[in-house]
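During the second year of the project, the team shifted from modelling isolated chains to modelling whole assemblies. The rationale, set out in the original proposal, was that interfaces cannot be judged from single-chain predictions alone. As a representative example for this report, we include one of the complexes processed in the last quarter. Its constituent sequences, exactly as entered into the pipeline, are reproduced here:
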Amino acid sequence: MTERNSKAAAYHRRDLMALMLSAGAGSLLAPISFAQAQGKVPAPPAKPRGQVIAGISQEPTVFNPLMPGSEVDQGVWWQLFSPLWFIAPDGQFVPDLAREVPSVTNGGISADGLTWKIKLRTDAKWHDGTPFTAEDVKFTLDLINTPGFRARNRVGHSLVKDIAIAAPDEIHWRMKRAYSPYLSILALTFIVPGHILGKAGDPNTAPFNSAPVGTGPFRWGERVAGDRVLLQASTAYHGSGPHLERIVFKYIPDLTALYTQFRTGQVDYLGIGGIPAYFAKEAEALKGVRVIRSPTPFIEHIALNLEFAPFADKAVREALYLAMDKQARIDAIYYGLPVATESFLPRESWAFEPQLAVHKHDPAKANALLDAAGWTRGGDGIRQKNGVRLAFSNSTTAGNLGREQSQQLLQQDWKQIGAEMKIANMPAAVIWGEFWQKSKFESVTVGSNFMIGSDPDVTPRFGSRSIPAKQGAGLNTYQYQNPELDRLLELGASQFDQAERRKTYGQVQRIVRDDLVLLPVYQSVMAEGLKDGLTGFAANINCSSNCWNMREWYWAR
Amino acid sequence: MSFVNIDRTDGLPAQRFWSRPGFKRFRRHKLAVFGTLAIIALTLACIVGPWLLPYSDTYIDIRARFALPFSGPHILGTDPLGRDVLARLLMAGRISLAVGFAAMMIAMAIGICVGLVAGFYEGVVGAALMRLVDAMLCFPSIFLLLAISALIQPSVPSIVLLIAATSWMEVARVVEAQIRSLKTREFAQAAVSFGASNKRIMFRELLPNAVAPIVVAATLNVAHAILAESYISFLGYGIQAPTPSWGNMLESAQSYLTSAPWLAILPGLAITLAVTSFNFVGDGLRDALDPRMDLP
Amino acid sequence: MSAFLLRRFAQAVLLLFIVSMIGFAILHLAPGGPLSQFAAGGEMAQQDLDRIAEQLGLNRPSPIQYAEWLGRMLAGDWGHSYRDGQPVLHVIASHIGATLELMLTSTLLAMLIGAWIGILGAIRRYSMFDSLATVGAMIALSIPTFWFGLVVIYVFSVWLGWLPAGNRYTIGDGSLLNRVHHLVGPVMVLALVSTAVWSRYMRSSMLEVVNQDYVRTARAKGLPERSILIRHALRNALLPMITIAGLHVPTLLSGALVTETIFTWPGMGRLFLDSINYRDYPVVMGILMFTAVLVLLGSLVADLLYGIADPRISRSG
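Output from the structure prediction step:
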């Protein structure tokens, strides 16, 4: 699919969705009602029926949604808990525990962005029967900001002050400064019960953490450590669904074993990690299952440490980018699954900038560029300038087959222009620690989600005050510093009008692309496997997991 | 001193190597002979082979990926990146065999020293050393894998050290038990009564008579080392890409078991062949060097 | 005898201290930490990692952390997992059942079949059976188990569909038949190598015994061959087997790491691998100490039995 076609299709779909939503089709049913309207899919059962076994390659171990968790943990949280609102696949905010999403237009957010007033549902109940109230929201926000509590992160939450409970179903607070991404942050913040966690002596080790109680469509069943987590349908759920009696998250650490069990029917849904690209084609030909290609918000790129001598030279970055054979990588190693990209935002994002310079594979031009910049070839064929060799290491998580093959391909490509790349892979526990955070790497092959929910605020990623290696607070491990970019990022975070923000972030993407802060490769597309008859699945780049709407899933036969 | 000649069995002339009874027995052991020939053939192939082939083991040719074996210019087909499988197999053989031998050498050296000293001196020193052996055996090899792979970037030398570090204990145990029992024999006690120094007794009396189990242990050690290397590489802590080893070829082939089975079968066969050969040789040596075999 | 036991006990305690110190040091020297896996998603930045590391006490110097760990350990508190907050002993206990099930089955099977093959091979030395058994055992010993496991899954689960592709039992059906059905695959893989090993041990042990003087005497006395074998030879041949079995006890509980991963068997081996990958220090140390105790116990038992079998070996160790 060319860039233009996919864009057109996305706009078409988006218009349709907007139309349906405005027609009041029921926000939580939006993803399926379109298909149902076409009469293709049978309606969900009246009572919850059947079970789904979701195969995942990491073990979910954290069940308190405010503590640090991985993607698989989030998959479980989406079933047990509810946020105030969530973001649908098309980018629209849909209220969940709140009655409506606050905005400047409806008065929920004051014009200066500092006062927030949220109206909450009155019919939501915790799994133990206690009604959900504004106290729980206050408790959640307070808990996150409690110094001794191991909260995941406090971005946005730390700006909240003066929380006041106006009524059992209404909560007000003030922000220390206007911060529009907070809307997205709250879309990913689950509310926890104040009446249970509040009574625990230490929330970090409360019994709640291994027997959670939430307001979500499923309640806690049991956990067999090292093997699986079982969730049961909650009959008192305030939204639509659930249509399944049980969900089992089955932990299968080996990707090949996971795929094999999907093949042999022991696993109904293969998601979160998805089917590896090298099995995707084969999987699509299998009977009894279907493979859905879901775009993800993860952008695969080569992260460069800009303080490392050769990378500080823009000519080197441009040459390396020119010499990269992106298409071969996508077509051959990933079987055409992902989509080449120039931006750090996924194409489904409202802020995605389509008019960026397009990559061309041109080793001759790369050579010319390096020659002109003074990088002369040494005796061994590797370029050097002022005593600095164009030699560096590239690291990624060990055991990732696709990336390992990509690295080897890149190594050969770059050798041709006189750059020596050494492969230095390491296990996940090592690479994402200080090696990555404190910019101790030279280059890393990584896939990152630059958005917060659906918000394109990338201040933590590219802001000059966000460099951990320089005592900053953030994720700017590239060590990029650009005052113009800082100005634009500050502007974007204080604007509330989407059209204006789109302009701002368009410029941000242009600067990042032209400066080649990182070498963008592709936007990851996941191949998720579903057994035939399992309906309701909808990919969502704005949520942390594609399991976000399991309450809508059901067996069609 | 005339006591120097006490080592030789008096009267009998020195025999030629290949007509010694031990070697005769070895020759009769068909499997051991097969094993020896296989090892020699494999080693030669791995050393000379890559030079004779037209393809390099690291050249990536994306258009030629997944070529079937026996179906074109690539004799054994190509891997997912288009590299010639035969070339990679032979180069990997170099690495795997070299790692096996080197690890064995180091493990033997450490194990013999520790076992010799422990078995000879016994007492506190012996107990301390054997407890050290016990302590080392307490660590599962995966734990030591973590240690070395975490502290140093995994490379051929570090893998060799790692494998040696997890296999010297068996050698030490075998040697210690052997030395301890040999010490009670007449010839050793005779040497003591003649006033021979400790070092002399250890290295010139006891050790030569313990050669049999040591040699057997050595061959089995190489076999174990080759398997260990494949195990380590399978877990991802071994030889890193793009250097091929039989272990990491297996590791990257497991995802293609259904679509390109030859990628997994060939390295697996190579490992099995090499390890089996060493085991055969070890078995043959054990039979050949066991003096009690001469009894009816 | 009691002096010997006392001495060994003291040595064992000292050893456990050393093992724990070395283990702790290695774990904490290794780069990366328990929170790195959460940072992979980009949700957490260095300041978040630092904040939580401080709360967990991970930024204090290693010797202090070790002293604390040791103190708690001696008081009976093995600590809590960093991943799910459960007590370490609880975590280990929840994984041991699976491993025991797998290892006991495969070891017993391997010992029975292996012993039978070995004894038969020793009695009928150089016969066709013996030659085949020897070659077979050698090849079985040389096959990488993970490779064999993959082949078994491919052939029996994917291609033929006779066996499930992993797991202990089908969710919802915990019947004995179902469990046995799921055991076949991994036991086949594990038992292959074990059987070969036991058959080799048994064969060489039997051969040694059969060549002894007392067997020749029994033959000279005119006793029937069968009764010689069973009454005299076998009993003496089995003795070293027991000591070797003692040494294998730790493996019963450490599990077969790679087999458990390939067959999705929720056992100790996989727990250990996962805990190391995620730097779950308390669980790793817990398993390490657990294994160490077993190894020392097995070594003591083996030495004791060896001493009984061969009185010439002085027990000065």
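The longest helix of chain B spans residues 85-121. Chain B touches chain A through 21 residues (CB under 8 Å).
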